């Protein structure tokens, strides 16, 4: 699917709500919200100084909807000039990042032969870093003597190149909490309207307030390689305040995403009290025989991903940000190794983008893989066995 991409710089609001901006842009250019994706640029010179806007074509092809990159560009410029656009300033500018490209077909065998005839260094000579098949940013062989000082694109942009369906494919059913009795619990399901408005605006959804109040709390941190069920081997304990700027910690600086993954029962009593109303909201699969759960607080950066794995039935409550999930029944994947790099592309039967306030249920022994589209805060619930 073709798309148009734009970069908007010098935005003026330090607490940007990307979902709200997506809705505003979609309304302004007369398209569906699902056709617009907004990403914060975590690597710009100032926090929240730049946004990446991706607009997908409207499937209904309404005559009132702009279809060309130039037409959408004009609409975006009109929007940031409008006084009602609260996140724009007089210095805000919009540029076209990529234009729709004409598709060129080539025989697979011919393409493979061309690739084999290209010297290794010429394949990557223009790149300082590139993603390996497992999604980690590495140095090409021609560049091993130079220091890795910058990332060529945001983690989400890199993942988008590997998985074109990253931001658009979602086939997991959503069920309102009021209809929970209708859930069979034999496949992934997203439960909505679990949290009250008050809980959806808890201190955990506001970064700086959470850091100001609980910054001295010791938490467990690590990367995708150290993550195990409900804890870490070789985890790096540190204060939440230090973990907030986790990319500046030497050994973790070049990881493809980092995470805070702390059992709730290990946190301070006041932090536990803050989390308890949220933990109490988790649905139970059985009213007659409620399952005791253990809860884990997770805080992860954009780009953090946990590779293909499985465990006991799990629920994940997302408080802020967005997560892409890839899932499949383990019975359908017999003989597939746990870390198959093509799982997210080829093998997952269920995919979804979890939104803030939603609870995702993953059935027992279902393989799943996760990718963070934004900075996220959430709570995981597993059976307490």
Automatic annotation (TrEMBL):
<protein>
    <recommendedName>
        <fullName>JmjC domain-containing protein</fullName>
    </recommendedName>
</protein>
<feature type="domain" description="JmjC">
    <location>
        <begin position="251"/>
        <end position="385"/>
    </location>
</feature>
<dbReference type="InterPro" id="IPR050910">
    <property type="entry name" value="JMJD6_ArgDemeth/LysHydrox"/>
</dbReference>
<dbReference type="InterPro" id="IPR003347">
    <property type="entry name" value="JmjC_dom"/>
</dbReference>
